[in-house]
Design goal:
Oligomer: single chain
Distance between the termini: 62 Å
Helix content: over 70%
Strand order of the largest sheet: 1-2
Number of strands: 4
């Protein structure tokens, strides 16, 4: 209990600040990559530390830049969302029954297609739908959105170790989704928020992964150099 209380200031900062989330998630990824280098390369601890610092620095710098770039692209897409959406709905899809999303929607009961889209959006971290769905799962034991007319139960774990863990899980999911909503979706249009989120995570992965995978070869070449005096 004391440990949980000690972590509350960090959680409060994490849930309210995109920069703190960037720092925590970058450090987590850096730890995983450093562990991989320790297990699968012949790098020394000093070299792993150097690679981790370089990769973490590159990722922390890349995250907000890639996020802003994604958001800018998303804003432009959202400006023409009605026209773009109509093209997507009407596009012919080879091998799909009905041949287009528009015809599939027309064959479904009223509102069922739209609710299915809301359900899918509810499982991407940080969307408004994800916050609403997790809250509904915790409070009602059922999801906020139906699939093919059926409500989705919250039952994931059942009575594990003598108590129902589902409410705990969905309360945690709600808190994490709300933190991601503040970081990527709050005050943004839908596609703007989505591409902001994707830019942030993929920018981090590309920057940190590139340094982590390149470091063993670069440092090995450096060790092999012979300085002749």
């Amino acid at each position: 209990m004391r440990f949980a209380k000690a972590l509350m200031p960090l959680w409060n900062a994490y849930s309210k600040s995109g920069a703190v989330q960037d720092a925590v998630e970058t450090l987590g990824a850096a730890g995983v990559l450093a562990g991989g280098q320790a297990l699968f390369t012949d790098m020394t601890p000093e070299e792993i530390l150097l690679s981790t610092l370089l990769g973490g620095g590159a990722a922390f710098a890349a995250r907000p830049i890639a996020s802003r770039l994604g958001a800018a692209v998303g804003r432009n897409i959202d400006k023409g969302s009605t026209e773009i959406g109509e093209k997507i709905m009407s596009a012919k899809i080879p091998g799909m029954k009905g041949n287009s999303l528009r015809s599939i929607k027309s064959d479904m009961p009223e509102g069922e297609f739209d609710e299915l889209m809301q359900f899918l959006a509810a499982y991407y971290p940080g969307t408004p739908q994800s916050v609403k769905n997790a809250a509904s799962m915790a409070a009602r034991g059922k999801g906020a959105y139906k699939v093919m007319g059926n409500e989705v139960p919250a039952d994931l774990f059942g009575n594990l170790f003598g108590r129902n863990r589902d409410k705990d899980f969905w309360n945690t999911a709600r808190a994490l989704n709300k933190a991601k909503y503040v970081q990527n979706f709050k005050g943004k249009t839908p596609v703007e928020g989505l591409l902001s989120s994707l830019g942030r995570t993929q920018g981090d992965n590309i920057a940190q992964g590139t340094v982590a995978f390149a470091a063993p070869a670069l440092l090995a070449n450096n060790r092999e150099e012979v300085v002749v005096v």
